[in-house]
Amino acid sequence: MTHESVFIYSDKQLTYRFNESHPFNHQRLQLTYDLLTSVCSLSKEHILEPRMATEDELKLVHDPAFIDAVRQGGQGTLSNGIASNFGLDTEDTPLFPNMHEAASLLVGGTLTAVDAVMSGQYKHALHLGGGLHHGFKGRASGFCIYNDSSIAIEYMKQKYGAKVLYIDTDAHHGDGVQWAFYDDPDVCTLSIHETGRYLFPGTGSVGEKGSGKGYGYSINLPVDAFTEDDSFIELYETAFREVIEFFKPDVILTQNGVDAHHYDPLTHLCSSMRTYEFIPKLAHELAHEYCDGKWIAVGGGGYDMWRVVPRAWSLIWLEMTNQRDILDKPIPQEWLEKWQPKAENQLPSTWNDHTSIIPTIPRKSEINEKNLKTLEKALFHIRNEMKAKARKG
To answer: Where do the Histone deacetylase domain residues begin and end (predicted)?
Structure first.
């Protein structure tokens, strides 16, 4: 096991909690942390406590008026009319006590990960409390208050002068991050997600390519509903390899939402753990090939918090730390016995999913063919640019 990776975690992050019935439940962090410690892959020497983001750091992306509204919302002094102007006190993003502090801690966790890697202290950093990619400059959206990934990218640009490649494999389009850097040639965003025809936020079409100097640096792969492992992995690998060769970043930031899994209740994709084993494997490989290992990974969506999220997020850490041999062993009995009484479903006893969990998809070949056409359209500009460079070179 190497010690070039760091895990950002504190149980204080569990305070980011809208209400008891809300699907976004950061107990996922505790479940994942506990699973990793139960297999002896994570100890205190690997953990850094997240710090609180400062207001100036939040202002790297967010309007001061929005930050003030969030603070007032957490104090119970925000009127309904003003709240709605900022996307607050909605069904998706309801108010809760001390929400400014809770959201600032998540941002600070991602910034802690950034500094750990960009200072050269570590090659890789994992902050599962982050990945809130729907937050906008002046508006909360889709369970996300402050957009930690956007803030982290701007922070890396200003403090470290870095070119950043942002890879988003959440089933929901990474809209907040894309729009924050839509005209910026120093940030490239690649999002593979379920098509917006069926799913929030409804954006992320192939035609969203960036604007001005940033044209060509926003790449979207909207896959069809019921997409399975083979198609998802093929698109992800092909696009990631071609985009990183085209962009040549200084650092990779991956958003690791795990809601493309078949069990997820909010999406319509059909991935299994095979996809979530491959996603960090490729990121790890390409980070060493192109970025001297600089790889920061954050969490994101994932709403089957019992059967899917702990295993899928653990796979990122096991890949980062070269502990893949653990996957040959069963899930520890002590973890199963601890959490099964609280779980809504039967907890799986293996790291991998049995193939039987994915039902037969009658349109599988049609879906795969459609996704390949989407890939061709998404990479058309990049492939032309690479051909032009090859002719000149």
So the answer is: 22-317
φ/ψ of residue 122, rounded to 5: -135, 155
Q: Which residues touch 56 (CB under 8 Å, ≥6 apart)?
A: none
| Token representation of residue 199 | 């799913």
Tokens coding 7: 């895990």
Give the start-to-end residue ranges of the domains of the chain: 5-52+108-391
Relative orientation angle of helices 309-320 and 273-290, to the nearest 10 degrees: 30
Q: Is 100 exposed, middle or buried (0-12, 13-18, 19+ CB in 10 A)?
A: buried
Distance of alpha carbon 264 from its chain centroid, rounded? 15
Q: In what order do the strands lie in the sheet with 187-194?
A: 47-48, 5-8, 124-127, 295-298, 251-255, 164-168, 187-194, 218-223
Do you find a cis peptide bond into 201, omega within 30 degrees of 0? yes
Match 């954050």 to its residue by tokens. 298
What angle (nearest 5°) sits at the alpha carbon of residue 233, between those of residues 228 and 239? 130
- CA pair distance 344, 324, nearest whole angstrom: 28
Each residue's pLDDT, cut to its tens digit, for the chain (393 residues) gives 446 999 999 999 999 999 999 999 999 999 999 999 999 999 899 999 999 999 999 999 999 999 999 999 999 999 988 999 999 999 999 999 999 999 999 999 999 999 999 999 999 999 999 999 999 999 999 999 999 999 999 999 999 999 999 999 999 999 999 999 999 999 999 999 999 998 999 999 999 999 999 999 999 999 999 999 999 999 999 999 999 999 999 999 999 999 999 999 999 999 999 999 999 999 999 999 999 999 999 999 999 999 999 999 999 999 999 999 999 999 999 999 999 999 999 999 999 999 889 989 989 999 999 999 999 999 999 999 988 888 886
Phi-psi region for residue 146, left (φ > 0), alpha (ψ -120 to 50) or beta?
beta
11 forms beta bridges with: none
CATH superfamily of 5-52+108-391: Histone deacetylase domain (3.40.800.20)
CA angle (276 as vertex; 174, 344 as ends), nearest 5:
90
How many residues appear in the chain?
393
Burial level of 390, CB count in 10 A (0-12/13-18/19+)?
exposed
Burial of 265: CB neighbours in 10 Å, binned 0-12, 13-18, 19+ = exposed
